[in-house]
Amino acid sequence: MRILVTNDDGIHAPGLRCLEEIARELSDDVWIVAPETDQSGVSHSLSLNDPLRLRQAGEQRYAVKGTPSDCIIMGIRHILKEHGPDLVLSGVNRGQNVAEDVTYSGTIAGAMEATILGVKAIALSQAYGLGGRAHVKWHTAARHGASVVRRGPGGRGRAGPLGHSEF
Q: Where is this region: Disordered (predicted)?
């Protein structure tokens, strides 16, 4: 299974490292295409007026000067054009995506863009406690992420189903 991983917190975010580990529990064919910088709160926006810049950041690892939606489009339509992903994972977001926050989330939008392009997708978010954003307990997502993905979206149809899980 080929997995494409993105996020909205940026290529160097700890949540992306966590999700990459989750993806590697599920497959040996993992590709990372994530924003060059933090894109939290950009929702489902696209970079229409600025050229997208793609930088190879390692083997099967790319940084895009753009939004999570840009990253998914770049990943599916350009980087993996010959053999697209079977699944897109977006996250693990630093902080929860619930209630109205869902509409602003670049993490959710990355997964939504994948479904628009016909690929099943799951967005994952990790809530943090009273200690704030600096004290996220990534081990919760790391421990349960692969089993959540295994039970993830199923079904058929032109657009792949979308799932979201909070830890």
A: 145-167
DSSP structure class, residue 28 = S
The structure's pTM equals: 0.92
- Choose among 36, 33, 43, 88: nearest CA to 66: 36
Q: Which residues, at least 6 apart from 32, have a Cβ–Cβ distance to it below 8 Å?
A: 5, 6, 11, 16, 20, 57, 58, 60, 61, 62
What tens digit of pLDDT does each residue of 106-159 get?
Answer: 999 999 999 999 999 999 999 987 777 778 889 999 999 999 999 876 544 444
DSSP state of 40: T
How many other CB atoms are there within 10 angstroms of residue 137's CB atom?
14
Instruction: Of 115, 126, 125, give the one whose Cα is nearest residue 153.
Output: 115
Number of neighbouring beta carbons within 10 Å of residue 138: 19
Asked whether the beta carbons of 123 and 44 are under 8 A apart, the reply is: no
CATH architecture of the domain with residue range 2-166: 3-Layer(aba) Sandwich (3.40)
Q: How far is CA 22 from CA 74, 92, 95, in A?
A: 22, 10, 18
